[in-house]
Amino acid sequence: MPNSLGFTCSCCGDHHAELPMSYSAMAPDVWDPAFESDPNSTLSSDQCVIKGQHFFVRGLIEIPVIGSEDVFSWGVWVSLSRDNFDRALDVWNTEGREAEKPYFGWLSTELALYSESTTDLKTNAHTRPVGKRPLIQLEPTDHPLAVEQRTGITRDRVREIAMAVLHPA
């Protein structure tokens, strides 16, 4: 009997044993590999600075899966002001940092699966305990991603996302 968490892909016909519950962008959309040689630019797994002027942190947009305890997540980048970025770095490895106020930011990851652009959606980055990426909460608008974050998605929607990510058009 196939794993109930897996799925048979309608694109390739293969059975995938597990249903992926997260996808992540490796860099903000505005990152260019040419920045690697710029001494005022850096990209790590959690932070990014471009030309000493643009500041980003990586976080998770978490979406509840309806009818389960599962959470689907998008690993995304948000731009922060220099002050908020500096503060986030100051407390990055500090126990109790989750007591920080959320940092306002702009979503800097385009999720092409959505009919409307996700770039520049308003967000709040909520710091969590050391070792956990920030929780990215979208402004409660009628954007499809914001609606999904508020209301949840079905397991069928998770499969739909998996097929679109695994087999981009």
Task: Give a quick precis of the structure.
With 169 residues, the chain is α+β, with helices and mostly antiparallel strands.
Describe this structure in words.
The mean pLDDT is 91. The chain has one domain. A hairpin with an 8-residue loop joins strand 9 (122-126) and strand 10. The radius of gyration is 17 Å and the shape is globular. Helix content is 17%, strand content 28%. Strands 3, 4, 5, 6, 7, 8, 9 and 10 form an eight-stranded mixed beta sheet that branches. Strands 1-2 form a two-stranded antiparallel sheet. By secondary structure, it is of the alpha+beta class. It contains three helices and ten strands.
Q: What keywords describe this structure?
A:
169 residues, alpha+beta, eight-stranded mixed beta sheet, two-stranded antiparallel ribbon, 3 helices, 10 strands, 17% helix
Write the layout of secondary structure elements.
Elements: E1 7-8, E2 15-16, E3 22-24, E4 42-43, E5 47-50, E6 54-64, E7 71-80, H1 82-90, E8 103-107, E9 122-126, E10 135-138, H2 144-151, H3 155-166
Parallel strand pairs: 3-7
Antiparallel strand pairs: 1-2, 4-5, 5-6, 6-7, 7-8, 8-9, 9-10
